[in-house]
C-alpha cells in the first residue's frame, strides 16, 4: 500500500481547471495501482506584506478560488471520495513574497509540515501577474527535494477556433438531446415524428457537434447532473409559484409596496452552463430580473425588498450549484455573506 500526497499551488489561470482534473486523475490512477490513499493539498500563496489583513481583498479572492478548486476536485473524484482527501490553505501571509525563492520557501515549508512529496504545477500559475515565475520556481522546489511535475495541459488561445475536435460521445449526446427536444416540440410519438426527428437530429448533430459541445462529455457525470436537474426543476417551479403569489399580492395591494433596486454581486458558479442556468432561473422567478452578466458578476433588478432578500440569501444559487457540482458545493457562503465579508475588508 502506497500513499500519495500532492501539493498544488493555485492562482487564477485559464488552465487551472484542467490542472485540477489532471491532479485528481493522476491520484486516482495511483490509488488503483497501489491500493493506497491520496491527499491533495491546494494552496494559495499570498503576495501580502507582513502587515497582512486576513479580511483583505486578496484574502477573499484566495478563499473564493480555493472554494472553487475544491468543488472542481470533488466533482472529478465522484465515487472515490473515500480514498481521496482534499485540503486547502492560504500560505505566505506572514512573508514578503517577491522572488521565485520566496515562493519556493513557503511551498517547501508547507510540504514538509504536511509530509507532502509531490508538487504539481499549473502551467498558467503566475501569482505575480505577467512576471515569469514558473520555471525558476519549479527548479527551486525541485532542488529542495520535492518531486516536481507540470500538469500536461495546453494553454488556451486568445481567440479559440469556433470548431474543435469532437468525439463520438459528443456527437451521440447532441443527437440524443436534439431528438428528445424535437419529440417534445412535436407532442406525439407517431411514426412521422419519429422519422423526421431522426433526420432533424442527425442534421443538427453533423453541423454543430464540434461547436455546441466544446468540452468532453463524461457519461457518468452527465447522468448525475441530469438526475440532480430532475430534482431542481420541481424546486424551481415552486420558487416561480411562490414569486408569482408575492408579486400578485404587491400588485393588488392598495399601497403598491414596491421597492425596486438593482443589485450587483459575484455568483459562486464557474461554468458557462451553470451561469446561464442561474441567470435564467433568476429571470424566470417573478420579482427578479437578470439585467447583465459579466463573467461571474451578476446585475439583477429586484421589485421588492422581499425578492431581493431571497436572492441574496442564496437558496437559488445553492440549488444551481447542487445541479452542476453536487452536495459539497452547497456549503459555500451565500451572496449576502460574501458581500458582507467584502465590505468588512474595505
From TrEMBL:
Keywords: Cell membrane, Membrane, Transmembrane, Transmembrane helix. GO terms for molecular function: monoatomic cation transmembrane transporter activity. It comes from the Archaea. The keyword Iron-sulfur does not apply. Pfam families: MNHE. It is a multi-pass membrane protein. Its main location: membrane. InterPro entries: Cation_antiport_E. One of its GO terms (cellular component) is plasma membrane. The chain crosses the membrane at residues 167-185, 191-211. It is found in: Cell membrane. The keyword Transmembrane helix applies. This is Monovalent cation/H+ antiporter subunit E. It comes from Halocatena salina.
Amino acid at each position: 500500500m502506497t500513499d500519495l500526497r500532492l501539493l498544488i499551488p493555485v492562482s487564477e489561470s485559464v488552465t487551472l481547471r484542467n490542472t485540477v482534473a489532471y491532479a485528481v486523475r493522476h491520484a486516482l490512477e495511483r490509488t488503483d495501482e497501489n491500493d493506497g490513499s491520496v491527499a491533495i493539498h491546494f494552496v494559495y500563496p499570498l503576495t501580502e506584506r507582513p502587515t497582512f489583513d486576513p479580511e483583505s481583498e486578496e484574502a477573499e479572492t484566495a478563499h473564493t478560488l480555493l472554494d472553487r478548486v475544491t468543488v472542481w476536485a470533488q466533482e472529478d473524484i465522484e465515487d472515490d471520495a473515500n480514498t481521496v482527501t482534499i485540503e486547502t490553505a492560504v500560505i505566505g501571509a506572514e512573508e514578503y513574497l517577491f522572488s521565485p525563492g520566496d515562493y519556493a520557501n513557503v511551498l517547501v515549508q508547507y510540504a514538509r509540515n504536511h509530509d507532502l512529496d509531490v508538487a504539481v504545477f499549473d502551467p498558467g500559475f503566475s501569482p505575480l501577474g505577467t512576471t515569469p515565475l514558473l520555471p525558476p520556481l519549479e527548479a527551486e522546489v525541485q532542488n529542495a527535494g520535492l518531486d516536481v511535475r507540470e500538469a500536461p495541459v495546453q494553454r488556451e488561445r486568445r481567440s479559440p477556433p469556433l470548431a474543435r475536435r469532437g468525439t463520438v460521445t459528443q456527437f451521440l449526446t447532441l443527437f440524443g438531446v436534439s431528438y428528445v427536444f424535437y419529440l417534445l416540440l412535436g407532442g406525439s410519438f407517431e411514426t412521422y415524428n419519429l422519422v423526421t426527428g431522426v433526420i432533424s437530429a442527425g442534421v443538427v448533430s453533423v453541423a454543430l457537434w464540434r461547436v455546441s459541445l466544446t468540452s468532453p462529455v463524461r457519461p457518468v457525470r452527465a447522468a448525475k447532473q441530469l438526475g440532480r436537474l430532475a430534482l431542481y426543476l420541481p424546486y424551481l417551479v415552486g420558487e416561480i409559484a411562490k414569486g408569482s403569489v408575492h408579486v400578485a399580492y404587491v400588485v393588488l395591494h392598495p399601497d403598491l409596496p414596491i421597492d425596486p433596486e438593482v443589485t450587483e454581486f459575484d455568483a459562486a458558479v464557474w461554468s458557462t452552463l451553470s451561469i446561464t442556468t442561474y441567470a435564467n432561473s433568476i429571470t424566470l422567478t417573478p420579482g427578479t430580473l437578470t439585467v447583465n452578466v459579466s463573467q461571474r458578476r451578476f446585475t439583477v433588478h429586484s421589485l421588492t425588498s422581499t425578492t431581493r432578500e431571497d436572492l441574496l440569501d442564496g437558496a437559488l444559487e445553492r440549488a444551481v450549484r447542487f445541479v452542476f457540482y453536487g452536495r459539497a458545493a452547497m456549503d459555500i457562503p451565500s451572496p449576502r455573506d460574501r458581500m458582507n465579508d467584502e465590505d468588512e475588508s474595505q
